[in-house]
Amino acid sequence: MSKYRYVRRVALTVAMGGFLMGFDASVISGVVKFIESQFALSKIELGWAVSSLTLTATLAMMVSGPLSDRIGRRKVLFLAAILYAVSAISSALAPTFVILVIARMIGGLGVGASLIIAPMYIAEIAPPTVRGRMVSFNQLNIVAGISVAFFTNYLILQLGQSDAGWAQPLMFDEYNWRWMLGLETLPAVLYFFGLFFVPESPRWLLLRGQQPAAREILSRAVGEAEARKELAAIHASLDRDAGKAKVAVTQLFAPAMRLVLTIGIVVAIVQQATGINAVFFYAPIIFEQSGIGTDASFAQAVLVGLTNLVFTVLALLVIDRIGRKPLLILGLSGITLSMFVLAGGFYSATYTTTGEDLADLPAELNAPAIEDLQDATFGSDVEFKKALRGALGDELATQYESDLINAAIEMNPWLVLLGVLAFVASFAVSIGPVMWVLFSELFPNRIRGLAISFVGLINSAVSFGVQLVFPWELANFGSGTTFLIYGLFAAIGLGFVVLVLPETKGRSLEELETILVRDPA
Q: Is the pLDDT assigned to residue 425 strictly greater than 90?
């Protein structure tokens, strides 16, 4: 790796956009519990608070690829850094739910831009032998951002209960969710200044006819000899496209693109339909459903982040040795099994409130109405929550849902923890990082920006839907059915990978283009 020290440093800097994306997206997991009661949100409004970021990220993906083709990859990354900082500050200061959503949507524009452009840029500067590892730096930074968000959320929760003299004036307890959101300002500013030390993509420079600049950057990145080979391959690819008209969206649907586009669309859907962002964005809520309480649920969310980080590092180390397809088969098998275990665990849970349980609850809940629930047993979380709302009303039932579930549930919470951690590990070692590596490899140079934006749009749209309806699903379908649906999507994806997906490791982008994209005879 010492041979590629420069390209590694550049890739790590660019991949800091992934850190911001991961932090910005997952920090909301600690916020939802507090804003739901503060702003008196319905389940769909709560889902909207989480998914609004993904909505604008989806819109940004539609334009960030073509925009980077016009003004350059580097300038789009600068813009993303600015959007992250503006979003963090305005989210922390938001006085109303509407303003909070608008602030989160601004951050979503940065998420969409960096999520598309960072891996694209890295793939365009990295040599084929280490491209998978370099592109995975972005996914590594995403999961590092997720882990840091879980940890800082837990830390702020603990500081809110601290008697330390320095913590009291900062009012971590009163402004806990505002502190959680505002911390992102620091890495956003660091990312902005770090981009001044990153060159423009050499492939983009060649597309713009700036051959001397492209040669200089490639020589510094991979050495003079490899630079000459890559320049020749890129020129050959550009020459093949020289007589063709300007790239249009319709070219994505040409017969020659059928295989790579199908692979891109299916992988994009499966990655999100298996429920990864429901777990990342609602982790404390999921753990609270197993009856462990608020503090423990935030602590277990930290374990989710650490597991994600460790197994993403493992994927980064082996992706160029084992290959993309074996990792996907292994990971999707694990995801399917984990989701079925979670579904079975929640299907087996029962909910019973005894007189002793009721006596230990907060004074506000010791009302005559709740006594009707004493010694009643419910066979599902949906039935139990419905009974709570009928006895207490929506506001009190929402505010004390964690306490009431903790008092009534009979199930093994360790089964939930192990199922979630196994799911996250399986995702992180496979379809999490591999999807973006595939996206950066499958599509030809000339339409890569447009193609990645298109499949990224689909991926983000599915993510938006999963996040939006997850609180509603828990309330209406229950935890067991929700996780069963995710497991079925993983099983479908596994079958597709086994039957259709080719291996792409170790081949140049131009070589892959000749193999996968063929004009009909």
A: yes
